[in-house]
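Minutes, project huddle
Topic: does the predicted pose make sense with 3,4-dihydroxyphenylalanine bound?
PN asked that the exact inputs be recorded in the minutes so nobody has to dig through chat later. Recorded below.
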Amino acid sequence: MENSIRSLREEIAAFRIGTADELEAFRLRFTVRKGLIAGLFAQLKSVDPARRPEIGGQLNQLKAEAESKIEEASQALVSETKTAGPAIDLSLPGRRHFTGSEHPVQKVLGEMKQIFSDMGFTIATGPELELGSYNFDMLNFPPDHPARDMQDTFFVRHEEGEDDVLLRTHTSPVQVRVMLDRKPPIRVICPGKVYRNEAISARSYCVFHQLEGLYIDKGVTFADLKATIYSFARQMFGQDVKLRFRPSFFPFTEPSAEVDVTCYLCGGKGCRVCKKSGWLEIMGCGMVHPNVMRSAGIDPEEWSGYAFGMGVDRTVLLKYKIDDIRLLFENDVRMLRQFPA
Ligand code: DAH
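Predicted holo structure (tokens), as shared on screen:
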């Protein structure tokens, strides 16, 4: 019996515990209920009763040694994992991070702004909640103009004897604000959101974007307007693009025109998008009406100017082949993620 105790003690002393698995193997071999130490305790019955206390003492001692070895080893293992930091599983698939990106409308607006700022235009902005006098009256809209109708305009305040408060229906009131605010020469573009009370469909929405332009100086002519629009259109839609100026009417310009570009999808041959005409309308424009200048305190005898206003969203739809304008306003990340930075 004493020999067995001695050899087990040697074995225990020599056992190397460096890992959690080895610690468990040690425990299973020596200290569990069916382990080797318990086996020796079981043999105690057959020992001479006179020697039993002594042998029993040796066994207790052996058991204590084994247990303290376990204790030591498990503490060493714990402090090792602590200093090594949290366990990293390098085989785990990575977590994907989505980076924000510019909305397609802002991308196209950005291109437009760049082209005009290269030509010397600076950016002016105005409020989306606008006064009726700026949105209509000072732009020479007659009192009975249909655009003033509730059917077309979102009114916020509409009271007898008070200036209307409304969601601007175009960016043209920013022209008025700029003219009231600065002295000519003036050369600005005014990008922004506008609102109209329209039936919502794939082709039209109650909110959309416009980019307005205004140039006032001495001796500005329609030829200046044409050259500016040509230069813009070539940079925006390609060098081969052709333009068509159609006579039109706006209360705030005289003469007025609407501008078409050759359809940049079919190159002017005629397709579904241009409705087989080969042309796409991109903007309205004209020479600033003397009444508009006068109402903003600028003398039309001394100064002249041109203005233009174009829709942004339609170009976005065509450029990115999006077939429903509502997608531009719904903020659905599944759509936005398709336009990475
Ligand atoms: N404000 C017009 C619209 O919303 C667009 C426009 C036409 C703006 C002619 C202009 C202009 O500055 O000269 O339909």
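Observations noted during the meeting:
- The chain has a mean pLDDT of 92.
- The beta strands are 122-123, 129-131, 155-157, 165-167, 186-195, 207-217, 243-250, 253-262, 279-288, 304-311.
No decisions taken; revisit at the next huddle.
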